[in-house]
Automatic annotation (TrEMBL):
Its cofactor is Mg(2+). InterPro entries: PRTase-like (IPR029057), PRTase_dom (IPR000836). The keyword Cell cycle does not apply. This is uracil phosphoribosyltransferase. It comes from Dacryopinax primogenitus (strain DJM 731). Signal peptide: none annotated. One of its GO terms (molecular function) is GTP binding. The lineage of its organism: Eukaryota, Fungi, Dikarya, Basidiomycota, Agaricomycotina.
Length: 227
């Protein structure tokens, strides 16, 4: 069995929904995830290596944006028939952990506009509830990269897409980017939003009795922001 086959057999369900894409499961990517999963990894290293993965995810997300033909003239005076992105994009982070992915998006997309959504669990109903949102005024006319590092039960991500839909964004113009996902979260999200593209770095075994992703990497926000 090759390295890629071994990794895929350990982490991915046999069949993914058609709107779900994973990063190529290479040995290099597994090494990065091994570092960030290690409970003894220092905060500085955790930030450095998660940033590397986030940039890979953003680049993959951009691969799924539509393009149109575009012709340019090169410095040699020759014509080159290429492509350009169709339409404008923006990022929307799900607070607070999603904010960690904003820098990776800005490194790839210069001057990109970024909105924010805060969703928390309602203690009375146990359902995801919107507490705050600040979105670009023209978001309905943009493609949206939705940013949240962990997809566990899917509740926050599902609610975030609903908030974007209420702001006028069709779900097919949303690309949801995350580092680690559970099969349960993927299935719940895709049943609710089957035309929203999901870009994930790794699919873990599942959820434990506390609804934590296992093997997982712990609380992303706490490891990222707490010394």
């Amino acid at each position: 069995m090759t390295t890629r086959e071994r990794i895929a057999s350990q982490t991915s369900p046999a069949e993914l929904p058609p709107n779900v894409v994973t990063l190529p499961q290479t040995a290099q990517l597994e090494a990065l995830y091994t570092i960030i999963r290690d409970k003894d990894t220092k905060r500085g290293d955790f930030i450095f290596y998660t940033d590397r993965i986030i940039r890979l995810l953003v680049e993959e997300g951009l691969n799924h944006l539509p393009v149109v033909p575009k012709t340019v003239i090169t410095p040699t005076g020759e014509k080159y028939d290429g492509v350009g992105f169709k339409g404008r994009i923006c990022g929307v982070s799900i607070l607070r952990a999603g904010e960690a992915m904003e820098a990776g998006l800005r490194e790839v997309c210069r001057s990109v506009r970024i909105g924010k959504i805060l969703i928390q669990r309602d203690e009375e109903t146990a359902e995801a509830k919107l507490f705050y949102s600040k979105l670009p005024d023209d978001i309905a006319n943009r493609y949206v990269l939705l940013l949240d590092p962990m997809l566990a039960t899917g509740g926050s991500a599902i609610k975030a897409v609903e908030v974007l839909q209420q702001a006028g964004v069709p779900e097919e113009r949303i690309i949801f980017i995350n580092l680690v996902a559970s099969p349960e979260g993927i299935n719940a999200f895709c049943m609710k939003h089957p035309t929203t593209r999901v870009i994930t770095g790794w699919i873990d075994r599942g959820l434990n009795e506390k609804a934590y992703i296992v093997p997982g990497l712990g609380d992303f926000g706490e490891r990222r922001y707490t010394c």
